Amino acid sequence: MDPLIAITQPAADEAGIVSRIVQRSIRDGCALDHRNDASLVEAWTRHKGCDQVARWLLDEALCLRLAWLQGKPVGAGMALATGEVCLCYVQPESFRRGAGRALMAALEHFLGTAGHSHAMLYSTRTAAGFYARMGYRPMGRPVSFTGLVLTPMRKPLAVSAGAWHER
């Protein structure tokens, strides 16, 4: 991992940071998926506000992480103890700098140490190439959710001790 990237568990007072990263990434980085349709953007971001993120931080069945690049928060990711990665968002100006890859490594580590042999997720069209480069492969037919087309993807996990360290 790039020494300029740090992955942390957000503190309670960072819920607003996580919410802003996720909502802005959706609005500005996922136009291919929402096609600048305000009702689609609203439906996608509706349950990602500060209050919801604060609840996620209290839920022990979730792994929520914050990515920092050169000391600035640039990404957020979350996995469920059931084996699903359900969030991985990076600010558009920080795309292709390693923050998304570092977030996914942290989430996959969580899932592997929780006993999962595979990680699964539902990818948007915007993120499909990123996930494919991370080793995820489509499994099954795309599904529609709140106006978005999502492709189920899966990746085998190989957790080795010391493969990833949180700062």
From TrEMBL:
It comes from the Bacteria. Keywords: Transferase. InterPro entries: Acyl_CoA_acyltransferase (IPR016181), GNAT_dom (IPR000182). The keyword Membrane does not apply. Pfam families: Acetyltransf_10 (PF13673). One of its GO terms (molecular function) is acyltransferase activity, transferring groups other than amino-acyl groups. CDD domains: NAT_SF. Residues 5-158 form the N-acetyltransferase domain. This is GNAT family N-acetyltransferase. The lineage of its organism: Bacteria, Pseudomonadati, Pseudomonadota, Gammaproteobacteria, Pseudomonadales.
